[in-house]
Amino acid sequence: MIEANDKDIALELCALSRRFKLKRGLFRAPGVITAVDNISLRIRRGETLGLVGESGCGKSTLAKILLGLLKPSAGNVLVDGKEVNPRERRALARRIQPIFQDPYSSLNPRRTVADSVTVPLRLHRVGTAAAQQATVKKMLDLVGLPERTHGQYPSQLSGGQRQRVAIARALVLRPDILICDEPTSALDVSVQAQILNLLMDLKAEFGLTYLFISHDLGVVEHLVDRVAVMYKGQIVELGTREQIFDRPVHAYTRRLLASALTPEPGLGIPDIDRVAVA
User: Fold this and answer.
1) Predicted model pTM
2) What are the DSSP calls for 225-247, one per residue?
3) pLDDT in the model for residue 4
C-alpha cells in the first residue's frame, strides 16, 4: 500500500481486467482466457516501477491497455487522478508514451531518423515546421545521436542507435509517463548499460515516471524503486526493490529469483526445483 497523497500518484490501475475469447472449433463453445486479472496498482510521480514475471503472464497485455491499444474488459486507468477515456487516444499519447523491445520493427524503415522523431509533433500539430525541426535536433542531441545520423535510415544504424531514436521519438511530446516494455532485451550486452544509463539521465532531466517491464531481474534490481511481480495475470507481490530481492514472501517470487542466472563463476545453473510454487 502506498502512503502518499492522491496528488503524488501519476498512474493508477483500478481493478483492471482483460479477457480474450478462445475459439475451440466448430462444435465447441468458445473459451475465455484472462490475460489481466483484477489488477489494482498505483505508481508515484517520478517513480520507476518494475513489472516482472515469466513470458505469457500478461505484462505486455497490461502495457497495451495503458497505451490505449487494448480496451480493458473491466476496470479503468487514471492519469493524475482523472479517468482515461480509451477513445481519446490523441490526448493519452501526450501523457503516456512507449519504448518497445525491438527498435527496428517500431521504426518506419522509409523514414529518416529526423523524420521519424518529427512525426508525433506533426500529428499533434505542435509548433511551426521550423520549431519542430529545432525541437527534433535538440532531442536527438540529448539522446546522444550525432548530427550525421539525423538524415540516415534505421537500416543504417546500430541496434543501440535505433533504440536512441525510439527514445527520442517517445520523449519529443514531453510525456509524463514512459512504458518501457523490455527496452534493452534486443540489444547487445555492451549496449544495454548505455541505454539504461540514458533512461535514468532522461528521467532526472524531465521528471519522468517509468513503468519498466522486463524479464531481466538483474536490470530490474539495478534500475527500479519498487517491483510488482506478475503471475497468471495477477500481481502476487509488490514491494520495494530491497523487499522483493532480499526478503521475497510469495513462493512464485522466490522461484523467479532462484531461476535467474548469475554472472558469478562456479555457481552453475540455478536449481529451481528446490523452490516450490504454492
Assistant:
1) 0.86
2) SEEEEEETTEEEEEEEHHHHHHS
3) 52
